[in-house]
Amino acid sequence: MNQDYRPYQAVAERVAVEAGELLLQAYGQVSARQKRSGDLVTDADLASQKLITERLAESFPDHTLLAEEEEVGPDPSKPWRWVVDPLDGTINFAHGFPYWCVSIALEHEDRLVVGVVHDPSRGTTYSASEGAGTTRNGRPVRVSAADRLRDSLIATALPIDFLEDVDRQVAYFLRFSSKTHSVRRTGSSALNLALLASGAFEVCYATFMHPWDAAAGVVLVREAGGMVTELSGAPYDLYAEGILATNGQVHAEALRTLAEARGPRP
Fold first, then answer.
1. pTM, two decimal places
2. Per-residue pLDDT reduced to its tens digit, 110-165
């Protein structure tokens, strides 16, 4: 009998909304510090992570945590692991651009089984658990029905070290720009995946995405009927670097586009 993960999902939803309320109180009045070139952290990130960590520990004291700030790491000997981004889109948040979110996912025995992405600016919560589908504010959503790349809207996340990989990044961007409606770079990978799950994008791709950026969104996409692989088409690995998420209908065409951009192997 399959396990029902909805009780864990309900806790994740409650905690994500509470963290979002905390972030909204600080929004528009934060000062950011640079972790490294092009990568910011704010006191709000840290406060949100502290709240999430405490709430999850209260509900599930035997679970471990993988999160972005303060180098919180997993315990591989335990089967339950929360994967958390307390504020995805920190640069947007610091600049007052309202495209950021809280992302909370749960792994059980190395499977992603719960994903919640909460968008505080719009009061929108995207939520899914294994076998239960994806919802937006409690209502079921599905991926887009578009079956051609030329009818698709694409989202991408460019790496911080863009200039070190500029040829590949530009090649991908140009290929997708010429074959689709357009390409968007938004600054929040988790929210991109949530929007794909609810039909706004047909494709999200990135050559590098941290586990906490992707985890919740991967559950949302899968449960909404979409597909997630590595950029090569290999089965998706949360702890690898690249990701291709689609509505499923255009996945093969997106993979061909990526291969064309990479060109023939030497």
1. 0.92
2. 899 999 999 999 999 999 999 999 999 999 999 999 999 999 999 998 877 666 77
Here the CATH number for the domain that contains residue 120 is 3.30.540.10
242/168 same-domain check: yes
> Can you state the angle between helices 43-59 and 6-26, rounded to 10 degrees?
150
In a domain, 1, yes or no: no
H or E stretch at 70:
none
Inside any domain, residue 173? yes
Residues 6 or more apart whose Cβ sits within 8 Å of residue 119: 20, 100, 101, 125, 126, 191, 194
Would you mind telling me the total number of residues written for the chain in this entry? Answer: 266
Phi-psi region of 50 (alpha: psi -120 to 50; beta: other; left: phi over 0): alpha
Helix, strand or coil for residue 244?
strand
**Dist CA 104 CA 240 (whole Å):** 19
**The tokens 């991408």 sit on which residue?**
156
pLDDT in tens, 204-262: 999 999 999 999 999 999 999 999 999 999 999 998 889 999 999 999 999 999 999 88
| Whether residues 208 and 173 fall in one domain | yes
Q: Within this chain, do residues 195 and 255 fall inside the same structural domain, yes or no?
A: yes
Query: Which domain does 43 fall in, by range?
Result: 6-141
